[in-house]
């Protein structure tokens, strides 16, 4: 997909996108489920358990994506 982004098929669930961050022990994973729900996992250590987990609807994910990509403009 791109350097630092790893895609894994999750049969019966959807796809997982692992995004490498600057530090080796930090990463973000996004699972896009077949029904459109997105799960955002934040890992800040080598632990298999995430530090934070958010479940986002498709609309919520689009809003977060717009802010992160700097395409959100306040009227």
Description:
With about 80 residues, the chain is mainly beta. Helices cover about 15% and strands about 40% of the residues. The protein has one helix and five strands, in the order E-E-E-E-E-H. It has a five-stranded antiparallel β-sheet with strand order 1-2-3-4-5. A hairpin with a 3-residue loop joins strand 1 and strand 2 (about 15-20). The radius of gyration is 13 Å and the shape is globular. It starts with a strand and ends in a 7-residue tail after the last helix. The model has no long low-confidence stretch (mean pLDDT about 90). Pfam families: KhtT_N (PF25991). This is Potassium/proton antiporter subunit KhtT-like N-terminal domain-containing protein. InterPro entries: KhtT-like_N.
Q: How many strand units?
A: 5
- Please tell me how large the radius of gyration is: 13 Å
Estimate what percentage of residues fall within beta strands: 35-45%
Dominant shape: globular
- Uncertain segments are none
Q: Determine the structural class based on helices, strands and strand pairing.
A: mainly beta
Number of helices: 1
Largest sheet: 5 strands, antiparallel
Mean pLDDT: 88
**Order of the strands making up the biggest sheet:** 1-2-3-4-5
* Residue share in helix: 10-25%
How widely separated are the two ends?
Answer: 34 Å
Secondary-structure element string = EEEEEH
């Amino acid at each position: 997909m791109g350097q630092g982004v790893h895609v894994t098929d999750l049969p019966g669930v959807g796809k997982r996108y692992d995004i490498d961050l600057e530090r080796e022990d930090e990463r973000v994973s996004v699972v896009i489920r077949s029904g459109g729900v997105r799960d955002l996992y934040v890992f800040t250590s080598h632990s298999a358990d995430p530090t934070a987990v958010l479940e986002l609807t498709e609309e919520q994910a689009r809003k977060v994506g717009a802010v992160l990509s700097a395409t959100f403009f306040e009227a």
